[in-house]
Write a structure and sequence with these properties.
There is one protein chain. 34% of the residues are buried. This protein is 53% helix and 7% strand. It folds into two domains: 2-71, 3-Layer(aba) Sandwich (Glutaredoxin); 84-194, Glutathione S-transferase Yfyf (Class Pi), Chain A, domain 2. The chain is α+β, with helices and mostly antiparallel strands.
């Protein structure tokens, strides 16, 4: 398998961590979707990463779809429950974490790509509000539990860890650790795992 992606994308990082936790072998191919030379559209018509190229040449895209598929490929380190309320809970945590990342990325696109005179401070603040509300909901949902769902690491924790790591990387002024010590404790625990250390966002 080949994974097309960037070192900075939190969605790509989520897939890479899942592949590491599942001990799956793959080739990581760097892809800059903003480059005029990018060929990502040949694999993903939406022009986004991550994109997984499978053994038969078929392409799979959207991190949520990819990680669900990957979790079926090996019984090692099951990350998504098979059915029921627990499965729905894990997927809901993932949706919350992805929503925080979505809002953060919209802030960056607005501030980096749109000319200053055309930026909307009100719209940017609305996205900041989503990030803050999402992180607050994570802290409330976690409480004093050791993991987001159950008693061991799941996709919920991986998604939350990727979201918090990316927010710290791109918005270091946001003191979510000080505001939510329980999330900080979970993040430190996740950051000690090899899969997280090997995929720290860069660039």
């Amino acid at each position: 398998m080949k994974l097309l992606g960037s070192l900075a994308s939190p969605y790509v990082r989520k897939v890479r961590i899942v592949m590491a936790e599942k001990k799956l072998e793959y080739e990581f191919v760097l892809e800059d979707v903003w480059s005029p030379d990018s060929t990502i559209a040949e694999a993903n018509p939406l022009g986004k990463v991550p994109c997984l190229i499978m053994e038969d040449g078929g392409a799979m895209f959207d991190s949520r779809v990819i990680v669900e598929y990957l979790d079926t490929m090996s019984p090692v380190g099951k990350l998504i429950p098979g059915s029921g309320r627990e499965r729905a809970s894990v997927k809901c945590w993932e949706a919350l974490a992805d929503g925080v990342m979505d809002a953060g990325i919209l802030i960056r696109l607005e501030t980096l790509l749109r000319p200053e005179e055309k930026r909307s401070d009100e719209w940017v603040e609305r996205q900041h509000g989503k990030v803050r509300a999402g992180i607050k909901a994570m802290a409330s949902g976690l409480g004093e539990a050791p993991f987001c769902v159950g008693t061991h690491i799941s996709l919920a924790d991986i998604a939350v860890g990727c979201a918090l790591g990316w927010i710290s990387f791109r918005f270091p002024e946001m003191d979510w650790r000080g505001d939510h010590p329980n999330l900080a404790h979970l993040f430190e625990k996740l950051s000690d795992r090899q899969s997280f250390r090997d995929t720290f966002p860069t660039v």
